[in-house]
Amino acid sequence: MFIVAGVVVLLGVALAWRGLSSSGDVATPEARVSASRQGGREPSPAVAREGGAPATSAERPSGTPEVAEPMREHEGVLLAEVSGAAGPVKGARVTLYVLSPRDVRRGRAAWFVAGRGSTDAQGRVTLAARPGAYLVTAKADGFATAREGVIRPVGEARTQVRLTLGAGAVLEGSTLARASREPVPLTRLTLSPRTLLSSRIQDVPEEEQHAQVSDARGLFRFEGLAPGEYQLEALAPGHAPRRVERIHVPMSGLTVELDGSAFIEGFVEQADGAPASGADVTAAGMGAPLHAETSEGGGFSLEVAPGVYEVSARMGSHTGAAPGRVVVGAGMTVREVRIRLGAASSIAGVVRGKGTGAPVEGASVAVVLEALAHLPNAALVPVASAVTTEDGRFSLEGLAPGAYTVNVQARGHRKWSREGIRLLDGQRFDVAAELEANGRIEGLVVDEASTPLAGVHVAAEWRWGRRPIEEVLSAVSDEAGRFVLEDVPPTDVYVAARRDGSQMHVREKVSVKAGETQQLRIQLSGEGLLEGTVRTEAGKVPQQPVTVYALREGVARTESLQVPASRDGTWSMRVRAGRYKLIAWLSETGNQSGDQEKAVEVEVGQTQQVALQVREARHPIRVTVLEPNGAPSIAATVMASDVGSSEVLIEDVTDAAGQVTVVADSVSGRALRIWATNGGRRGELPSVAVSQESVTLQLAAAGSLVGTVRSAGGRAVDGFRLVVSGTRSDEDFVTRLESEFAGARFNVDDVPVGPIGVTATLADGRAGAVEAVSTSGGTTQVEVVVEAGGGVSGRLVDATGAPVAQAFVDVDGIMSPETGPDGRFSLTDLASGPRRLTAWSRTTARAERQVRLEPGKVLDVGDWKLGRPRVESGRLGIHFGMDGKDVTVSALMEDLHQGALRVGDVVRSIDGTPVLDVGQARERELGAPGSPATLLIRRASHTYPVTVTRAP
């Protein structure tokens, strides 16, 4: 397994451009103000039908704007039914919010009011609503607000949603300064409900937030809240903003700890070194961009939230940027940030249709800072944006030197991105964006008897995380079982189908082609109900949020399902019949606290009751990762293994405070090796006792790389792709940086320390590579000579000769696409000379081989046989879990001990010594390489010994 340093945080909701209006347009607040100034009339709200009355203009709150194009009843309606403990509620005020698509120029999705109305005597109101994603709220005097997220699918004329009004709950607590423990008065607290839709984005409509200010003693109290999960944000003068992601309401005694503000200070100089007075300085990163103007001496000071920033300056036609990212912690001041102004850079180009060459007019083009793209809670506000002209052209001027990502979006086409564009002083980078036309999927849903099924919800999802594809509206099958998914991006799509009320999808992979229609047949099997409770070891309801996880036997982890447990510790999910592994864990520490497992069988039409247990970690270690300057390291990858081993047992990512909790309950020894990476920075603690409550790990500074690219034949070099990769082979991770440059020069920071490989590839296929050594805090200079590129191809097979799918081949940091069912791979435009090939997959061991590539030739390595998955010498290749107080077999390495052991077996002892927990099982498991191990197992009502062999 490769642990790739860096975290790609991807978020999405099931929307498409055309779902928001007949033309697909959505009014921005600016557009609505402009229309008002020009005498334009704002659209009226949707009129309620079944006895409900529309809200009057006097009742309309300010804040969230209305959609530009009113909802129309012929496009579909949403029926809201509002009830309380005594039955239907008449006169409840219902608001319908629609979530707009994510616009690359806006950088995020946005809410708009789609309609308002009040319920009739039956507690009903019908509002026009075209297909899309909505938040529905109901308010009535004497009740807490009820909210529900709902998807209006294509093909469904009327969608029903039920909202239940109840008594309000209370959230109370206090705001304290973390360092002094003194109260922080006048803290503004904003509470936002987490709903089906809002949990995927960072905000909810303004009117649905709750605000309070703490008093002189730092105390606060929210009343009239609907019970459920919320997100809390706190803001106080002189203190850094604080966000608490998940809070259960009702709650009392909540303590919100605030850190001191952070500051970035420095100087801006002109090209000749003179102070740049009156320059505009911008810090972009956490939250909205912040600005300051330099003094007569060129100095500036910015009060910022703790986090990561790109700091740039502009004065007239000149721009500049601070070298590297600026990382600052709470109560910390980063000084001596120096920016030298030079000629401004630019990105320009054309947007065309792929295959047609026709210019795309009206495409949105936006540039964001690449350093912030994968950070949690970073505000990805574009630094520049444009709309293509009639000939498809655009130009983005006045950019400071730095690394950028260009995003292009146009209706009817797949989104296009180009990462790693690095601009040096005064450079112009030309981009040609070729957009692929979207395709469509026509399908049929049937049951086990091939009978068409109506009312089945169908959505297009990405492979990982069951994330819906934002551009594609979900659909529902008609009476003939048929459905259509429009505007599907041309790529591998997973079409998920589920019955109404079900959680577990049947997912079918579809390779969508540009401009084409794909046919799909989905067969649903019988379902059953999984439900139960989650309790602590003491038999009490957990006070912290709990996640329940289900994985059907024989499927990939990408097909797993997670649902939150309710406040009372209950949970329920309707799933396909089959055998499942169930785990519950405390959401704060993730599945590290989820060693309690149940293996259950779900039968068609039956309800399976399951009592799950979750426990507080016995050996939690709070790891704080610091940057080289002492600031918290955000989104650092933290890994843990047994002392002296590189096998990753625990992996997690630090939060905005640079912290993560490592749970050492399930390790075999009394100490852990803990290490962390963040870009090219790295740090390690060789031995941490599991009894320690907290540790601090500081990253060492990365290196920098500068150089030039030269053609062996003397031809000019005017742009290239550069890949920098660490060449360590003693660890299960690799750091890889990919950048694009104009001209023949390059400058890359945050380079991993130690041996590195540097590869340059030109657009015409010429390529070259060199090896170098990077030093911490130092600058390494290299020259890369390019010539005609070579290539390598072959087929990956396992020990039996069968092709290996879903595998990868890496050539000094350049990675092949994932292999298909035939196991074949191919890489071109590679530097000639000695090259190292690395292959790996989930089902095989990592393998390496050395080859020599010739200029202009493709080397066919034939069948490359990969071994079985790597098992640490002396171990059994078994993953252990807990079912109550029983140690169980949680998972087996593929094809290992098959028949002798199975998932769910209870392990009583190993080699005659009882095992009481996972840590003891791992300790007893380890033995002499190649030696036998005898496990006493219990399966069903039988207990008997099983002898297996440890890895050599």
TrEMBL record:
| InterPro entries per UniProt | Carb-bd-like_fold, PDZ, PDZ_sf
Domain of life here?
Bacteria
Signal peptide residues on this chain, from the entry's feature table: none
Q: What organism does this protein naturally occur in?
A: Pseudomyxococcus hansupus
Annotated region (Disordered), positions in chain: 24-71
What molecular function terms (GO) are annotated for this protein? carbohydrate binding
Q: Please identify the protein, giving its name as recorded.
A: PDZ/DHR/GLGF domain protein
- The PDZ domain, residue ranges: 874-941
